[in-house]
Design a protein that fits this description.
The chain contains 8 helices and no strands. Helix 1 (4-11) crosses helix 6 and helix 6 runs antiparallel to helix 7 (139-166). The longest helix has 28 residues, at 139-166. The chain has one domain: Ferritin. Helix content is 71%, strand content 0%. It comes from SAR92 clade bacterium. One of its GO terms (biological process) is tRNA modification.
Length: 202
């Protein structure tokens, strides 16, 4: 029987490049700022789903819980930043999320299915990176990142389950494989700037 982390690693088609890990350890201040942004954006995405799909009670219940958890994580990140005298400042977003979302279909139910699959990839990659990073971080950050694995792993599963239900009698395997190819490209190809979901910096 596999663990939740193994399920996530099996879902993803590549692991985070070692070079990105080196980039993260060399840019921990930037990593924390962008991590805070990622938590805030995750909550915002879930809120948008609640507004758009008001008749989907399972979706709005799961997204409501997700919003509370993501904002709690946001609070925890900025508390760590404050203890370390890191100012919270505006930085540009990575190409990762937009690079996935630009492939989403325009009309429902395809649009909803794709948004949910993309959400599953974002949560899965976050988990995979928390696990990769944790052993190399100081004790506070290691404990914090390991503590996120359970809830973020559940978010991954919630998104994937909701996508399957939105598809009804149709399988989502083809769409998952479609987005997996783009996700791997975005993770492995060099980037110009370091972000939590960027590719390795060349």
């Amino acid at each position: 029987m596999t663990t939740p982390l193994q399920d996530i690693q099996n879902f993803l088609t590549c692991k985070t490049p070692d070079r990105w890990l080196e980039n993260a350890l060399d840019n921990q201040t930037l990593m924390l700022i962008d991590h805070a942004n990622c938590e805030k954006k995750a909550a915002s995405t879930a809120m948008n789903l609640i507004y758009r799909y008001v008749d989907n009670f399972e979706l709005i219940n799961k997204m409501s819980r997700l919003i509370r958890e993501e904002m709690r994580h946001f609070e925890q990140v900025i508390a760590i930043m404050r203890r370390r005298d890191i100012s919270y400042q505006h930085i540009t977003a990575s190409r990762y999320a937009s690079g996935l979302r630009e492939l989403a279909r325009n009309d429902d139910p395809g649009k909803l299915i794709d948004i949910l699959i993309i959400g599953a990839f974002i949560e899965a990659r976050s988990c995979e990176r928390f696990a990769r990073l944790a052993p190399y971080l100081d004790s506070e950050l290691e404990a914090f990142y390991l503590s996120l694995l359970k809830s973020e792993g559940r978010h991954f599963k919630d998104y994937l389950d909701l996508a399957e239900k939105a598809a009804g009698d149709q399988t989502i395997e083809e769409r998952v494989a479609f987005f997996a190819k783009r996700e791997q490209y975005l993770i492995e190809q060099p980037d110009d700037v370091f972000r939590f979901h960027s590719g390795p910096i060349s």
